[in-house]
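Hi support team,

I submitted a single chain yesterday and got back a structure, but I'm not sure I'm reading the token output correctly. Could someone confirm the output below corresponds to the sequence I sent? I've pasted both exactly as they appear in my results page.

Thanks,
R.
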Amino acid sequence: MKTRYKFLIAIGIIVVGIAGLNRYSYNNYTNKQKERIELFFNYNYNIDSLTFTKTKKNPMGTLVFYGYFNDDKENDFSASIMPYQKEFERNNVTDGEFSRKNDKFKDRKTYTVSEIEKIQHKERRKNSEENSSSLFSDSAYTE
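Hi R., thanks for writing in. Yes, this is the structure output for that exact sequence:
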């Protein structure tokens, strides 16, 4: 009888542990996607701040983030990640008037998060090459 209780307690601990790990990985995933959403909006639009209000998963499996810009709840947005997507890439739903007023690029072009990351990587590499070339330039050593 005692071994049966020990076995049930062990199974209960395992189930609770797995549920805890799953919840941790879900929170970690949503935080990473929030960072990607912030990167997308900060790069493509002239905004001062971005505030998330809620995150929902609809019955079809789409993860939807809701929020607003510049401390004005009228400037709201929703950013979604479809079940077939691994990560957030671009936003499809913003207020048309807000996006027209705050676009950074001509013809209302927006870059995806992957394109932004590539651009930033190239800029960092270029800056590091410029800094390293100035360290090793001959102008520092005059005779």
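A quick pointer for reading it: Residues 42 and 52 are 14 Å apart (CA to CA). Let us know if anything else looks off.

Best,
Support desk
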